[in-house]
Write a structure and sequence with these properties.
Layout: E1 8-9, H1 22-31, H2 37-58, E2 63-65, H3 73-81, H4 97-105, E3 132-134, E4 141-143, E5 146-147, H5 159-169, E6 174-179, H6 181-187, E7 189-190, H7 201-217, E8 222-226, H8 238-249, E9 257-261, H9 271-276, E10 281-285, H10 293-299, E11 305-311, H11 321-333, E12 338-342, H12 361-364, H13 370-386, H14 392-407, H15 414-420, H16 432-443, H17 460-470, H18 476-497, H19 514-517, E13 521-524, E14 531-534, E15 537-539, E16 543-549, H20 556-563, E17 571-575, H21 577-582, E18 585-586, H22 592-613, E19 617-621, H23 636-651, E20 659-664, H24 673-678, E21 683-686, H25 696-702, E22 707-710, H26 723-734, H27 755-773
Parallel strand pairs: 1-12, 2-6, 5-7, 6-8, 8-9, 9-10, 10-11, 11-12, 16-18, 17-19, 19-20, 20-21, 21-22
Antiparallel strand pairs: 3-4, 13-16, 14-15
């Protein structure tokens, strides 16, 4: 009888940013001119080495390489295949660092007579950043690839090979990771004509084949190729594209084995397609889609390795190890080659729980971050390979944590449950047209009113003061005085710039979700549990462990102080319930819809208190509304129904003359525009600058009933757009929507920018708005 193969532990990707956000520090120093490229690459190499060594120490057998990125792995793929848009003026053999960051962040400078960026040997000197959007249903942002009908591809980055060899030199054998060619094309956009991006696949595949051959020649035995689009509704022609791609990629010479990797959901109607591909292994997500296990096992080839995603790569709760073993042991017993892994890359989780010494011990005992999740996998592998008795103590501890969480008095609040059980529909007393007249009379704003999204630059001085206050070095009274002075300066700056509707700047807020969660019951917070959002932007998602309520007002006093400084209307600034939900680590012991409803009632209380204090405009940001959309269209409506209802709960307690705004970040709105209309907000602000106002087509075709602020400049780039550039975008907006319903604003908050950039851009924005008024 053939000996059973031991179960191996794989990680599909590991956090890139470093335990102390070392990547963020290095990137921002490089962008500021304080760190040269050589030093940046050295810092990145050090972080990669640490990650490989840590995973090996934890017991991972299959460790990824090429999962690290200086900005975004989709952008890395664009660099790998040389799909750099012409605007960046790139023509070298390899995509250089300046061009790479120009695509990510834009570049400031002069253009040539043909409109292309001037090149000085190292990339674009003036160009806007490429379009950015969310990575499936996560809060991670990626740079959207752009393709033309005559698109050519060529190997323009050897990063995958370089990082494989780098790990090998350190004594670590890795499994390189590539974003699959079909998903890469499907995530991109056709530019300059109407054509099917999948038609480009025959031109793209030779580059992928060249990468695989180079890895095979370097003696790599496996490559992980991620095809997350296999868990979505595929467009026409995708099945044929997958068949073509994997016939070629699974048959390169010299050979290399391909682990086809899917995550974020179940294969469902794409299961037969995935199983028909000649990949040597298949990874499936058994956290999001546990129901697919039996069908996958039954349909997989006997010689095909199965990688089972049994540990949640998207959340922070300890796994029920006993339940996982109950499901996996029978499969292992058949003698099939089995690998156990997280459901997806651990990019989406914080790095190490050991740094969270301030968490309540009971709550801390329920959690597992990336390091702990690899440890859980090692316990499972030992149980599967040696028997449960070999890890009896570890399994008992895991069981105890599960029971503790289930029965804890910290989780349940009968009063919250009773309130949210109220099924009364949430709606404002009158429709938008009636409200609009009342609001116009109260506010007296000009045409094309100007405002910002909320936050202003969090300068080094602000961050230092917050850190010193957190450490107890700066007393409460001194810190509050500092914040008041920052608020005064910001209000005066806005008045001087000429903005029509002001904000207080949010200097007291660490993050748009964390700030509120820290004041709500049912939330826990960390000190160092950072997660990458994009590039150097990192967030610390709150942990929702129990029933949510608002013990006391959260923003009223800061709004009241800011409004006392000016005669112009001051917006009250809140984060909406769906965004708080989607940007948190959410409890998994009740439906997400119920948790969202609890948050909605808490925010509603704040909205009502702001109105009572005199706030004429209240913005309830739902930046993550579309982000939570299920990946399968047939599941959309159920989500949108409760998400819209939760927003309406927050806003339906105010009078007609109180204007409700909302804001949404990088998203495609066409398919959910009716639900956005159903929010019944008076004004919505959205990102449109990177898409050159293309997103407004959805609002035009739907005949959106309220007012819209299309973002006229991209705040994620340090580049300052000209008055003419913003005027052109407003002209484009007026061509799509009634001029009397347009607001003028940036596409997001200014927290990450500096004051010189912000003031210059806002002055240009105000000038563009005044020009539009005629």
């Amino acid at each position: 009888m053939t000996a059973r193969l031991p179960v191996q532990v794989a990680t599909l990707g590991f956090p890139r940013i470093g335990p102390k956000r070392e990547l963020k520090t290095a990137l921002e120093a490089h962008w500021a001119g304080r760190l040269d490229a050589k030093a940046l690459f050295a810092a990145a190499a050090d972080l990669r080495g640490q990650a490989w060594a840590r995973q090996r120490e934890l017991g991972a057998d299959l460790i990824p390489s090429n999962d690290f990125s200086l900005y975004d792995h989709v952008l890395d793929t664009t660099a790998m295949v040389g799909a750099v848009p012409a605007i960046y003026g790139w023509s070298d053999d390899r995509v250089d660092l300046d061009t790479y960051f120009a695509m990510a962040r834009g570049a400031q400078g002069d253009r040539c007579e043909h409109g292309h960026a001037q090149v000085s040997g190292h990339g674009a000197q003036d160009a806007p950043a490429a379009e950015m959007t969310k990575w499936f249903d996560t809060n991670y942002h990626f740079i959207v690839p752009e393709f033309t009908a005559d698109q050519t591809f060529r190997l323009a980055s050897t990063k995958a090979l370089h990082e494989y060899l780098e790990a090998k030199e350190q004594g670590v054998e890795t499994r390189p990771v590539l974003l699959g060619p079909v998903s890469y094309l499907l995530l991109g956009k056709a530019k300059g004509g109407d054509f099917d991006v999948l038609s480009l696949l025959p031109r793209l595949l030779p580059v992928y084949a060249e990468v695989l051959r180079s890895l095979a020649r370097a003696e790599a035995t496996w490559v992980q190729i991620d095809e997350p689009c296999l868990v979505t509704d595929l467009p026409e022609g995708a099945a044929e594209a997958y068949a073509l791609a994997y016939r070629m990629l699974c048959d390169v010479t010299p050979p290399i084995r391909v682990m086809l990797t899917t995550y974020f959901g179940g294969l469902q109607d794409n299961l037969e397609l995935a199983l028909s591909l000649p990949a040597h292994g298949l990874h499936v997500d058994l956290v999001r889609a546990p129901e697919q296990l039996e069908a996958v096992v039954a349909g997989a080839r006997p010689d095909q390795a199965l990688s089972l995603g049994v540990i949640d790569g998207r959340n922070v709760w300890k796994a029920d190890l006993g339940a996982v073993l109950d499901r996996i042991e029978p499969i292992v017993a058949t003698g099939r080659s089995v690998i156990i892994a997280p459901s997806c890359s651990l990019l989406h989780t914080p790095i190490d729980l050991e740094r969270e010494t301030a968490l309540a011990p009971e709550v801390r005992n329920w959690l597992a971050f990336a390091v702990q999740k690899v440890g859980e996998l090692k316990v499972l592998a030992r149980a599967l390979n040696e028997g449960r008795d070999a890890v009896r103590a570890e399994l008992a501890a895991a069981d105890a944590a599960i029971v503790s969480r289930r029965n804890s008095v910290l989780i349940h609040d009968p009063a919250v449950k009773a309130r949210t059980a109220d099924a009364a529909p949430a709606q404002r007393a009158n429709g938008f047209e009636i409200r609009r007249l009342a609001q116009a009379k109260r506010l007296g704003l000009p045409a094309f009113p100007t405002t910002t999204i909320g936050s202003f630059p969090q300068t080094p001085e602000v961050r230092k003061a917050r850190a010193e206050h957190g450490k107890g070095v700066l007393a409460d009274a001194a810190y509050e005085q500092f914040l008041r002075e920052e608020t005064v300066r910001t209000v005066r700056r806005q008045e001087d710039i000429g903005l029509d509707v002001l904000v207080h700047g949010e200097f007291e807020r660490n993050d748009m979700v964390q700030y509120f969660g820290e004041q709500l019951a049912g939330f826990a917070f960390t000190r160092a549990a950072w997660v990458q959002s994009y590039g150097s932007r990192c967030v610390r998602p709150p942990i929702i462990f129990g029933d949510v309520s608002r013990p006391k007002p959260m923003t009223v006093e800061w709004w009241r102080y800011a409004q006392s400084l000016t005669d112009k209307p001051m917006k009250g600034m809140l984060t909406g319930p769906v965004t708080i939900l989607n940007w948190s680590f959410v409890r998994d012991d009740q439906p997400r819809s119920e948790t969202c409803r609890q948050i909605a009632f808490a925010i509603r209380d704040e909205v009502v208190d702001l109105e009572a204090a005199g706030a004429p405009i209240i913005q309830i940001d739902e930046a993550a509304l579309r982000e939570g959309l299920p990946l399968r269209r047939r599941e959309w409506q159920a989500y949108l129904d409760w998400a819209v209802e939760c927003f309406r709960i927050t806003a339906s307690g105010v009078r007609d003359e109180t204007q409700i705004h909302t804001h949404m970040c990088y998203s495609e709105f066409n398919d959910i525009i009716a639900s956005i209309g159903a929010l019944d907000a008076d004004v919505i602000s959205i990102e449109t600058s990177r898409s050159q106002m293309e997103l407004l087509d959805a609002f035009k075709d739907y005949k959106y009933p309220a007012e819209i602020g299309p973002g006229v400049y991209d705040i994620h780039s340090p580049r300052v757009p000209s008055v003419e550039e913003m005027t052109a975008l407003l002209v484009a907006a007026k061509g799509r929507l009634p001029a009397e319903r347009l607001w003028v604003n940036p596409d997001c908050g200014l927290k990450t920018r500096n004051w010189p950039e912000s003031e210059a851009a806002l002055r240009n924005m105000v000038a563009a708005a005044r020009a539009a008024r005629g």
